[in-house]
Description:
The chain has a domain at 170-197 and 279-392 and 425-456: 2-Layer Sandwich (Dihydrodipicolinate Reductase, domain 2), CATH 3.30.360. It is of the alpha/beta class. The protein is built from 16 helices and 15 strands. The chain has helices spanning 10-16, 29-32, 55-65, 81-86, 96-103, 119-128, 143-156, 170-180, 218-222, 239-243, 279-288, 290-295, 382-386, 398-406, 416-435, 452-456, and strands at 45-49, 68-73, 91-93, 109-112, 132-135, 160-162, 187-193, 303-309, 319-326, 335-341, 361-366, 370-372, 375-376, 439-442, 447-448. The strands form two sheets. The protein has a nine-stranded mixed beta sheet.
Amino acid sequence: MNCSQKGLTRREWMQRSGVGALGLTVLAREVLGAFGGVSPNQKPIVAGVGVGGVGFPQLEACERAGFEIGVLCDVDDIYAKHAYDRWPQARRYRDWREMFQAEGDRIDAVYCGTPDHTHAVITMEALKRKKHTLCVKPLTRTVAESEAIIAKAREVGVATQVTASPNTTEAGCRTCELIWSGVIGPVREVHVWTNRPLWPQGMNRPDGSDPVPANFDWDLWLGPAKERPYKNKWPKGHLAWEQIKSPFGQNLQDPSTSAVAGAVYHPWNFRGWWDFGTGSLGDMGCHYLNTPYRALNLFEPERIHAYATRVMAESAPLASIVTYDFPAREDMPPVRVVWYDGGLRPPCPVGLNPDDWPDEGTLYVGDEGQMLGAEVLTPGLKARSEAVPKSLQRRGGTWVEWFEACQGGEPAGCNFDWAGPLTNFVLLGNIALRTGKTLHWDADQRRFNNADDANALLGEPYRSGWSL
């Protein structure tokens, strides 16, 4: 599929994305057998790659959904220890390339929970081997990688999923139903904000190098990224140290449970570096933009511009505002989507208490009223909103949807056909941040028509020995 969706009606677009009149097209199991569905009587065996950080709770979620955790792979033996202890029966690897070579047909599916810069190479290998594949968001670090992954996934037809916050939940579906029913009138603006980053951003590369610990494979962690010296910790008192917040409630000072305190690159603090991560927009944009993307048919922006604080060559900014302008789409007018991070957020609407304005949220501004997520804020419209029937199918969430798809059921809600363009959405915003330019996107040509330096960031070269 060309990622450009221009010219499609809402019905055609939803059908392409696995979405039908009740939210998702229900396909016959015998038809989906061609997708390599696992027998309903057999637990799909998952190989987890990147299991020390977010991979640990997400593999637990896979297990609860019905998968068997059969293989664990991580470049850091200490960081991954809690996963190894949790699934002692699982076969272990450090190098995912050796894992694929050795496991062959013993695995049915692959979970990729590594840093952003290795998503594409691991996911592509899984697809080439026709394994059902789930990747943490964002699907890739560059637009070129995303489009290559979309094409391969369509070619092999396996069950795919990305861990963006589902738009198939009660809140996601209700938002779509209310907007499509015209409760707040035509939507002209959407404001989306997050309290990220919780990791260092706005910094330069530290000087010097540190010895690589024996438990950690730095070269393999770098993967396709440009080679650079390993650096373990920021010096005490450095601004970067003060920016680090605790992920998942872990104790920052306990290396057996987190080890992120003061880390420069690994673990967890890769997100602020452009070579390895995609910043706050890449981290949370796929979550918070997924429902607006569905509700407002946000195929491709025409123009993107951004403002940021402490813009650095190698790292994402401390805070940013990124504005996307979209043309009219079928029966919907042009709409502006504005992203805020680093503690920035839109003004609190008149009539609401600013002290109650949340740290994270999505505000829809229509001609007749406003919504915060699925909550109608305009008092006179609440009765109208309550009369809107529920017409979309609510689903079981990320892990259940992927499990059902692996069993031959309907496609997961954030399958790669959907998640690829959603990923491109946030990545185009990052390019606007990195160039500091107002960018004009040509969706048909898959390039910016006014900035060659921006086009160079659509796909960046891998270091020698690495390829898709």
